[in-house]
Specification:
The protein contains five helices and nine strands; from the N terminus they run ββαβαβαβαβαβββ. The longest helix has 17 residues. The chain is globular, with a radius of gyration of 16 Å. The strands form two sheets. The chain has a seven-stranded mixed β-sheet, with helices on one face. A two-stranded antiparallel ribbon has the order 1-2. By secondary structure, the chain is α/β, with parallel strands linked by helices. Strand 3, helix 2 and strand 4 form a beta-alpha-beta unit.
Length: about 200
């Protein structure tokens, strides 16, 4: 069973697509959100949940005070589940404080390529299938960098057995924490590398 852990929708059960997803365990989500809560980044934040599956990460953020959440997953079953779950979370929200929740069925790379340049994100979750190639993940992250707010936090989940991803210019690793089979990487924006003038 997947559920919202805390916030106004705490304990709300979420629909999970029958196949093709690997929901983040309650233990891992609790650790991720404890760290985000400690940084105070969620209230009023714009949150992007890529490879959303059931939408549990993005909707947890909504329950804890994010103002806007976009859930992206191209799978038809995931799209149905996230729409259903988003409706439940909106219904549970206090009157006058309903978060904006958008569900997109685009492929992740297409979504990132088509996003308006003026839109930036404060918190981003990337929890792709473990069999997603490292090069595709790197392309996702490269497309994401210019769409991040200055103090943005990016959370990436991968198999703890795989080697760490290659982080593109514009992102730096703050922390890695392993929870059994799951490795959670916390990233932030880095300063651009200085251009080296020709001698």
């Amino acid at each position: 069973m997947t559920r919202i852990i805390s916030g106004f929708a705490g304990s709300l059960r979420l629909a999970v697509p029958p196949v093709g997803t690997r929901p983040t365990s309650d233990r891992v989500r609790e650790a991720i959100f404890s760290a985000l809560d400690a940084r105070g980044v969620l209230p009023g934040a714009r949150v992007l949940d890529l490879y959303a599956g059931s939408g549990a990460l993005g909707l947890e953020a909504a329950s804890r005070g994010a103002a806007h959440v976009t859930l992206v997953d191209k799978a038809t079953a995931a799209h149905r589940a996230t729409n259903d779950n988003a409706a439940r979370v909106r219904k549970a929200a206090p009157r006058g404080a309903v978060p904006e929740i958008v569900v997109s069925s685009q492929p992740v790379q297409s979504f990132l390529g088509g996003t308006s340049p003026g839109i930036t994100w404060d918190v981003v979750f990337l929890d792709p299938p473990y069999d997603l190639g490292g090069l595709e993940l790197t392309h996702n992250l490269e497309a994401l960098v210019p769409r991040l707010a200055e103090d943005a936090v990016v959370i990436v989940e991968r198999s703890a057995r795989d080697r760490a991803p290659d982080w593109p210019d514009g992102l730096e690793l703050d922390r890695r924490k392993d929870y059994g089979e799951t490795a959670v990487f916390s990233l932030s924006r880095s300063a651009p590398k200085p251009l080296i003038a020709n001698a």
